[in-house]
Write the structure tokens for this entry.
Amino acid sequence: MLNLNSKLKELEEKGGKINIGLVGTGQMGRGIVDRVLRMRGMNIPIIANRTIEKARETFELAGISPQDVYEVNTVSQAEKAIQQGKYAVTEDFEIVTEILPVDVIIEATGVPEVGANTALKSIYNGKHVVMLNVEADVTVGPILKKMADSAGIVYTGSAGDEPGAIKELFDFADSMGFKVVAAGKGKNNPLNREANPDNMRPEAETRGINPRMLTSFVDATNTMVELTAVANATGLIPSCRGLVGPTGAVKDLPKIFSLKEDGGILDKCGVVDFVFGIAPGVFIVVTTDSPVTKQIMSYISLGDGPNYVFYRPYHLVCVETPLSAARAVLYKEPTISPIGAPVAETITVAKKDLKAGEHLDGIGGYTVYGLIDTAENAKKENALPIGLINENTVLKQDVKKGQAISYNMVELENDSTILQLRRIQDKFF
């Protein structure tokens, strides 16, 4: 079997292309288009975005002439433009999921409801799905994966995003028979559970990112979501609710991630967690009881054991995403996907004292943040997954700052796709 690079080169030489449909042109979406249009054997002929001008701008930034970009409102218009070698932009994501020339959909909005809708429509229409929308994946990924399997298509997370990068390390070690003690990521930003778009706005503007996105980084919801995805794809569990989050250098990780009786932080092995001081890298800590392997690990300067760290000092976020699309189409393989029933959940916690009748605003907002916990604990407490919250979620009772919010404390939008999928998932698993 040819490797992926050779396979794409061969495809290009034969005049073929993997056609990607993109939903969402934020920072990640722009990066995906820029990279795909510089790769062999791949193309993005259509983008859906709620703001057409941003979709047009994304193509132009990637070097496409404005005269070659057409606004479309129907499937037939989109297919005609693509058949003529042009590029299409639309406000309607369903067009992207329906058109025949598209092989695989990349969902990059970060909005759970949109992600769930896009994935569901893509699966229905026989398109592979690359879910860069981790927020949707940790909420309804297990049922979407089951549906995709039944349809004979691939549902996958993205290479380059931290969960995908961690999963690649996990597979590398697990395939060789190492026992994985811990897996995780470095945290780029300081931790402040009270972060909100107002107090994050000056820094967000300096860094050129959305204030809500930065808020989700700083209040650690993003980290909780990403490590929930890792847990659901590997079977590793959270070290504790909200994780420990120690500080250390890469060389310290084998000791830090050992059992408490051995001087580490762990009550148990086989966990996910994050670390201050090693960003932007990802890691796994492994162990072995083999004297032969221990001798070899010492010889190649990986330490004397019993724990060892495998560390990747970068993750290329959206730059690597096209590789997951290519692997889905060419090899029918996911980069990262849920292995079955949820192992972990990112539950909803009040960011401040909240009153009955207040609307919650979800990830990166003013009212709540997310904490990872085991799916078992979340179920016992009837805890509300943070991905189910949107602007129409209303509190039915007062909630104290730091209190976990349960299903019975809120009124949810019953006709939302993600909630309906979640109810199916809960019944199925």
The mean pLDDT is 97. Residues 4-159+318-331 form a domain with the Rossmann fold fold (CATH 3.40.50.720).
